Each structure stands twice: as structure tokens, then as C-alpha cells.
Amino acid sequence: MEDKKLAIVTGGSRGIGRACCERLAKDGFDIVFTYQSNEEAAKETVKLCEKEGVKAEGIKRDVANSDECQKLVDEVVENYGKIDVLVNNAGITRDNLIFKMSDEDFADVVDVNLKGPFYMMRAASRKMNKGGSIINISSYAGVNGNIGQVNYSATKAGIIGMTKSLAKEVARKQITVNAIAPGTIETDMLNQVGEKQLDEFKKAIPMRRIGTPEDIAGAVSFLASDDSNYITGQVLCVNGGLAI
Ligand code: NDP
């Protein structure tokens, strides 16, 4: 019997990351995911993946820490012998208008959203199998900008630049590197948004609905599959038509 492929998903305990873990497990991947602090949620993700008949493991790791990212990749290679897919999903927001935004708010978001994917890609791309896929979760804000998100938009635009450059670097190894730019997606990240603002968001979306984590996981599944082997360096906008 052929060995299962292995996918690493950062920030898999909740939201989009959890949906990606579940979907990739359904697709037959063994799953290793990271989380920051929410152990209960991580256990639930493990259960959901194991239901699909694959191995699943949640590891507490801060993606903003270079050594922790390197250690994670080394452990995965030691325990599973390979990495087929890396989904850089972990992300945070520290929203504010620029004149109220502290140096710390800017630096924290850069550390997690931009340095994190860099550390993970540097470690994983060296060890990745031929035909592997790296999928970076960017954002509508990185493509189009967003009020109150100067820090976040900078990281999400930055991840697109990293995606395109790395795609060129590793193409000869038949590794693809693509970004997904979700629009507004129903996760804990939206908790700070009030009902009224959510209604405004919906009105602005041509499909008139907030996206689901599964909407993003479907795109991740495609970019992780052999059906997308000749697609690299691209940004797939999954946003119900928000930016056409
Ligand atoms: P959530 O806030 O629901 O979940 C964030 C996940 O990232 C959790 O698993 C969390 O772990 C983990 N995490 C946070 N910081 C770290 C860290 N330093 N190291 C490791 N893991 C960490 O986020 P979403 O699911 O909403 O977002 C996922 C991605 O999608 C992010 O990159 C986000 O920017 C992007 N995105 C989201 C949109 C949305 O509308 N929701 C829109 C566009 C893009 P724990 O559970 O332990 O806290």
C-alpha cells in the first residue's frame, strides 16, 4: 500500500486552519498542525482528522520563533520521513488606525504573519518532496488594503511577494508555491466586528454572504492536489466576488 502524503498546517486549532486540516485529512493526507495556546481546540482538530482515517498531531509552536519552526520541520521529517504540503495559515490582527497603532502592534503582526511563513518555508522547502506544494494564506487586505489594517495588510502583501519569489526559486524541483487571499470569513477573527458592520460587509460582497472556513479549505485542497501541478506563483482570491 502506498504511504500517505504529509501536510503541515500552521494555526490548525481553529477557524480556517482547522477546516484545512479536516479537508486535507479527507483528501488522505496525514496531518501535523501547530497552535499557539488553545490545547482543547487542538485536540478537537486531531479528533476530526482522525475520523478520516489518517494520522493527526497538534504541536504547540510559536511560528514567530525561528528555532521552533526549524525544530518542527526537523521533527516532522524524522517522524514521517517527508513533507508534501505546507499551509502557512497562522495569523493575527492588531487593528487600529495608523495614528493609534503602536510599534508593538506593528511588530507583533509582522512577527507572526510574515516572519512565521518565512521561517516555515525556509525550513520546509529544503526538505520538501518533488511535486510538493506550499500554500500561503494571504488576505483581501493584502491585495486591496483595508482601513485600520496597515500592519496586517503589509504582512499579507508581503506574503504574496514571498510566494512569487519562492515559486521561482523552487520551480525546478517541481514544487509549487501559491497564495490564497480570502475575503471576509466567519471565524474567531471576526469576533471583534459588530453585527452592523457584518451587515455592511455582506452588502459589499456580490454573493451577499460571509465566506466559510470550508470555502478556503476547498481552494487549499485544490492547490495541494496533483490537479494544480502546473500552477505556481499565483494568488487565488476567494471572496464571493468582493474584488473583481
Ligand atoms: P483564527 O484567529 O480563527 O485562528 C488563528 C489560528 O492561528 C489559531 O489556530 C491560533 O492558535 C493560531 N496562531 C495564532 N498565532 C500563532 C502563533 N504565533 N504561532 C502558531 N499558531 C498561531 O484565524 P482565522 O482562521 O480567521 O485566520 C487564518 C488565516 O486566514 C490568518 O492568516 C488570517 O490572517 C487569514 N485570513 C482570515 C480572514 C478572516 O476573515 N477570518 C480573511 C483573510 C485572511 P490558538 O488556537 O492556539 O490561538
Describe this structure in words.
The structure is a single chain. This protein has 244 residues and is α/β, with parallel strands linked by helices. The chain has one domain: Rossmann fold, CATH 3.40.50. Helix content is 46%, strand content 14%. The protein has eight helices and seven strands, in the order E-H-E-H-E-H-E-H-E-H-H-E-H-H-E. Strands 3-2-1-4-5-6-7 form a seven-stranded parallel beta sheet, with helices on both faces. Strand 1, helix 1 and strand 2 form a beta-alpha-beta unit. The longest helix has 25 residues, at 103-127. It starts with 5 loop residues before the first strand and ends in a 6-residue tail after the last strand. 45% of the residues are buried. The model has no long low-confidence stretch (mean pLDDT 96). Residues 10-17, 34-38, 41, 61-64, 89-92, 112, 137, 139-140, 182, 184-185, 187-190 line the site of NADPH dihydro-nicotinamide-adenine-dinucleotide phosphate (NDP).
